[in-house]
Amino acid sequence: MESLLKLIRQRQSARTIFDSKKRISKTNLDKILEAGSWAPTAHNMQNFEVLIVDDKKKLEAIANLKNPISLTFIKENYQQMSFSKEELKKKGRGVLGAMFPPAWRKPDVKAEDLVGEDHNSFMSEEIKSSSALAIVLYDSTKRAPASEGDFLGAISLGCVMENMWLMANSLGIDFHILSALSEGTIAKEIRTMFNIPEHLKIAYSFRLGYSIAPVKYLRVRRKISAFKHMNGYDTKKS
Ligand SMILES: Cc1cc2nc3c(=O)[nH]c(=O)nc-3n(C[C@H](O)[C@H](O)[C@H](O)COP(=O)(O)O)c2cc1C
Q1: Is residue 225 a part of any domain in this protein?
Q2: Is the CB of 179 under 6 A from ligand 1?
Q3: How many domains does the chain contain in total?
Q4: How far does the centroid of ligand 1 lie from the alpha carbon of residue 143, in Å?
Q5: Would residue 75 count as lying in a domain?
Q6: Same domain, yes or no: 83 and 162
Q7: pLDDT tens digit string along 115-147?
Q8: Residues 51 and 147 in one domain
Q9: Is residue 237 part of a domain?
Q10: pLDDT above 90: residue 43
């Protein structure tokens, strides 16, 4: 059991360039997908399909798609940012501002601040370097019963993600989830490119591969005491 907790603690986001010459073997890819298939899903609806892209030209085509960043994302992202490791450690949640392009790290960023910034290619080199990109599709026809907005269906997709992520990391394969391919024009273009039917929505995508440099960055979590409420909600914690 201790080794399971160790694996859970060591699972991490690899926002890094992967060695594009290294492939993910079919055996390992299938292990990752099998781990996903054994995830709990509400009503066992298994409300997902997974599209794997490992063709270099197709990966490049995805990486080259224009992906303008939304101002809403930048503004809300700013609220969660920490500007030093000390600040991040103290908060125990959120991410370091240094992860993002400088223009994104302004409290009152405006559309004109982003002109000339190369946002379209944010993560594009990372995508190109992937050994494989998995696009997880939410199947709206496999709804969990009586779940408003299919909230339970969304939780299910998270369970699938975690199983696949843990399996990949346990095999020494780096994993990087990307939300950016799920919305807006880029999602439409990917839908067309890969012939994705209308009833399927891109839920999230993830890159798989082997990082060139070790993945190492400050990862923080809140202490258990900060979110544990015993026998009643403690309003001093939030
Ligand atoms: C639903 C979901 C969406 C995420 N989207 C992104 C994303 O688009 N890009 C990214 O780099 N990380 C993304 N992440 C990763 C989180 O930022 C990351 O898990 C968190 O910062 C904790 O870091 P860790 O994974 O290394 O523990 C996402 C995670 C989840 C669960």
Answers
A1: no
A2: yes
A3: 2
A4: 25
A5: yes
A6: no
A7: 666 555 568 899 999 999 999 999 999 999 999
A8: yes
A9: no
A10: yes
Same domain, 78 and 158: no
Residue whose CB lies within 8 A of the most ligand 1 atoms, among 7, 11, 13, for a mutation test? 13
Which atom belonging to ligand 1 lies closest to the Cα atom of 217? 26
**Same domain, yes or no: 88 and 133:** no
Let me know whether 61 and 161 are in one domain: yes
DSSP characters for the chain?
Answer: -HHHHHHHHH-----S-B-TTPPPPHHHHHHHHHHHHTS--GGG---EEEEEE--HHHHHHHHTS--PPPHHHHHHHHHHEESSHHHHHHH-SSEEGGGS-GGGS-TT--GGGGTTS-GGGTTHHHHHH-SEEEEEEEETTSPPTT-GGGHHHHHHHHHHHHHHHHHHHHTT-EEEEE-GGGSHHHHHHHHHHTT--TTEEEEEEEEEE-BSS----------HHHH---SS--TT--
**Atom 16, ligand 1: residue with shortest CA distance:** 13
pLDDT for the residue numbered 191: 98
Residue at 161 is within a domain: yes
pLDDT of residue 19: 98
Q: Are residues 111 and 149 in the same domain?
A: no
Which atom of ligand 1 lies closest to the CA of 95? 21
- Residue 191 is part of which domain span? 9-67+124-213
**So what's the pLDDT on residue 1?**
67
Q: Global pTM? A: 0.94
Q: Are residues 15 and 44 in the same domain?
A: yes
Locate the ligand 1 atom nearest the alpha carbon of residue 161 and give its number.
31
Ligand 1 within 6 A of CB of 183: no
